[in-house]
Amino acid sequence: MGDNEMAVFGLSATEEELYRHFLRNPGTSVDDVHLLLHTAGTDAARALERLRELGLLLPAGPEGRVVPADPEQAVSHLADRRLHELHQDLRRVTRARHVVDGLRAEQGARTAAPQGIEQIEGLAAIRGRIEDLAFFAREEILSVEPYTRLSPENIARSRPLDLRCLARGVVIRNVVRRCALSDPPTAAYLRELTASGAHIRVADEGEAGERLLVYDRRTVLVPLDPRDTARGALLAHKSGLVANIIALFEKIWAQAAPLDAEPEQGGPSPLSEMERQVLLAMCTVGKDEAGARELGVSVRTYRRHVADLLQLLGAASRAQAALLARERGWV
């Protein structure tokens, strides 16, 4: 047997080999198929039964003859089934906070600080803890983010985590600085989050000067040095301190303005004529080769323009780039 390429969909090597056999020999009998594939009869019988259950083998009259399901339909069905299983696994994982609590207890005195405060050192460790806290959040995430812009890398890292939280029903309330809206990719990402259900407000620089994160009103993370967030962070679990920081957040939130009330950073398109034509091609032409041919450029040049446009718009896909460009009146 060759590589088990369909293992990603949950098929064993024997099941895949049987399905491929009937693709090559549709309408043949299942009798003695184990001899053709050099596998045990019991293994082949189990594999045949599962392929029938999955709808990959269909009866074709008497004498045990079968035909395989169309490959495209089969893969689509298997992918949907596998994604459903993964979604169920994810739901079980997100409810397993008690496992993390137990593992934290194993760390002993280092994390069980007498004041309920833990110091985290290093940017990688801080990012890892933020991802853990967001992943296991159940109810609400509050944050004040004083950045002036988000890099494409930051957006790419944050998008799946934020959207996954929103999809799970976690309430996200976020305050950002008004100047962040001057950066098109950052503004586009914030509006994307709003469209997905996040509540975002904008504040002047003096009102959103320091970063703070609150998870489920039980855990707070603040930078050790607001002027240099890479130095480290403090993670607080003590109820009194958490309550005070939540009160500070609510004050900042009350003074901030809803993102929806802020005007879009529109104005004339910043695109060159070639970029505008590439953007139009992205909206109307399916393949890069066709788009490049239509514009009279090489495929390599066309793809370079596409990559530049995705970065400029802060988009994760071509479809999203086209949507954002239309919203801004660029096409």
Automatic annotation (TrEMBL):
InterPro entries the record matches: Sig_transdc_resp-reg_C-effctor (IPR016032), TrmB-like (IPR051797), Tscrpt_reg_LuxR_C (IPR000792), WH-like_DNA-bd_sf (IPR036388)
Molecular function GO labels: DNA binding
Location of the HTH luxR-type domain: 268-325
Coiled coil: none
Superkingdom per UniProt: Bacteria
GO biological process terms held by the UniProt record: regulation of DNA-templated transcription
Protein name: HTH luxR-type domain-containing protein
Gene source species: Streptomyces gougerotii
Lineage: Bacteria, Bacillati, Actinomycetota, Actinomycetes, Kitasatosporales
